[in-house]
Structures are given as structure tokens and as C-alpha cells.
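Record copied across here:
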Amino acid sequence: MTHHVDYLVLGLGGMGSSALYHLSKRGLNVLGIEQFGAAHDRGSSHGETRIIRKAYFEHPNYIPLLQRAYELWHDLEQTSGKTLFNQCGLMVAGPADGAVIRGVHLAEELYDVEVENVSPTDAVERFPGFHIPDGFEVTHEPEAGFLYVEKCVQTYLESAQAQGASVCLNEQILEVKISDRSIEVTTDQQSITADSLIVTTGAWSSGCLSELQLPLEVVRKVLLWNPVREPVYNLDAGRGSFFFDMPEGEFYGFPSLDGATLKLAEHTGGETVDDPSHVDRSLHESDVPRVSRFVEAVMPALDPRPMRHAVCMYTRTPDGHFIVDRHPANQRVVYGAGFSGHGFKFASVMGEILADLATTGATSLPIEFLSAERFSE
């Protein structure tokens, strides 16, 4: 038997849980469907922490979205009473003429983002436990920090349900049929028609929206937790997150939350995933050397071998920017995809944007640069 809902959200990770929340906050009849459990570890929205920052070196067009994202994360903290955002700061280091450092300064210049330039001498005192390579420039963004990722997703889901949203977990999507007149979704448990649909299915986006032939690549990414040898990276000692633009790749990490281990990973690279439902989540010997070499070169107080690991996925576009758009066959279908490994911090504002597009067909926030049309030009 088929039943009808006004608004349907497919995929309840970072973006989908936020969209569900923003629709329910408007008093709308909304249902969310997730193929796994709440705040699960099978996709891209897990791993304890995610960096959030305003000095956005990827592209300055993201900064107005980040400014709104910050407001919305703080709003969620206030309404839920939960701590979701730790403003511990972010140290960025790299060649002065590299894209990362130049991007940080462009954000500072165009949007007056607070960025501190740190001299090599001061860096030794301010960031103990780090060896800054010769010739690197160091910046510090005091408004940056990290989000507790699973806690954010869980809070969105709980808050949405408290506002009247319905949630179906552990329910697999079998078919999505979109025409100019109808929206039909079949799962392994039910058939649904909807007035409007939001698709936020992460690494499964190409399958759910196969007719769009979105230029998405899914890659396997490994997160590592390495033992700390000295208490120089501890969050309770005032340490922050870090990002290094090294000649062999980009590496990032967080302060030690438990005093025993520190989470870090390589942002660049990654093996292509053919089927996101069957990702090898074991630790390969080849997953470790690049990060270990980074640790040996830059973090002498950290053991170069990990104590534990997790595997997630990046869904990347050719230019590294997100895709946020409406379906060409039915404007009541909107989607967000290709968040390219730097998207979670935007979940708060992306949920609002997707809810705007689903309810009114437009948003006041500047997302034109994220349109799928750029790939057909």
C-alpha cells in the first residue's frame, strides 16, 4: 500500500538530518528515511570530530554560507542544550605561495575573517609538539574549531522528531521514480509518494539520482588515532586543530580529547570505491605510511603508528565543490551531493538551504556557484 507525505528526505546523515530538522521547524509534515541507524558509521558523517573554520581556502564564495552555518550551529546548541561545537582554534601551515595559505589570506582580505600570522619563533612556543618545516608560513584562526559529528546528527534527528517529524531507520531505498508530475519512492518496507523530495544520500547519490549522471567519485578515506607520547597536544591544555599543506599531500588533525590518542588523517588521496555498500573497513598496510611520514616530520611527540582507525567516504566532484540544485525534470525534487570531504561543517546551513528550495523553490543564500549546470557548460 502506498501512502503520501508532504515532504520526504532520503538519507539522514549530516545534510539530511539538518534538512529534516529545518522542515519540521517550519511545522511541515515531513518523513525522513535512512538505510542504516541514527548517526551511523557507514557513510561520511562519523569519526567523532570535524573541523569547522571561516578562513576558507577552498573558495571565498563559501564564506557567506559559513557565516550562516556558525549562527545555525550556535542556535542548535542553545535550543538543544547540548555542546556541539568546540572553538579551540586552527593552526594552518604551508608554503607561503601555496594554494592553502593564499586561500586563507584571501578569505581574510575579502571577508575580514580573523586570521593571526604566527612567526616561526612564536610558533614553537604557541604550538608545542609541532616541527614547522623550513620556509612554511603559519596562521592561526581563533574562531575555528571542531564539531562533534555524531552528536550533531543525533541532535538534529531528536530535535526534528520533537518537532513532529517522522523517521524510518534501517530501511533500504529500492527505487526513486521522478517525473514532471509525481515523486515515488519504494523501500524494502513501504511505498511513498511525496509532494516534495530532498535527496541527501551521500556516497549513494549516483544510484538514487542515476538519470542525472552526476560527475561523482566516491573514495575510501581512513581516519587514524595515534598514541601521544607527551601531553603537548591535549585539548584541556588549550591546544587546537591543525592543517598542513605538505609537498606530498594535505594532512589535518585535532587536539587529543582523551590525553592518550590524537585523531589525524590525510585529506588528499583515497582509493576509488565502486560500491559504497561494500567498503573494506579494515586497516590496510598501505593506509599508514603517508600519515606516518607526516607524523615523523612534523609531530615528534606523536607515535607514527596508529592505535585504532575508522573508514569513511568522500563523495567528490571534479572541481571539489558541492552540488546543490533542483531536479531538471521536477523542480519539487532538490538534492545536495558531492560534499568532497569538506562539507560537514556546512550541514547546518545546507539543511536550511535544502528546506528553502523544497518549500519555495529558492533561497536567499548565495549558492549559484554550486549549481549542477557548471558541469554541462
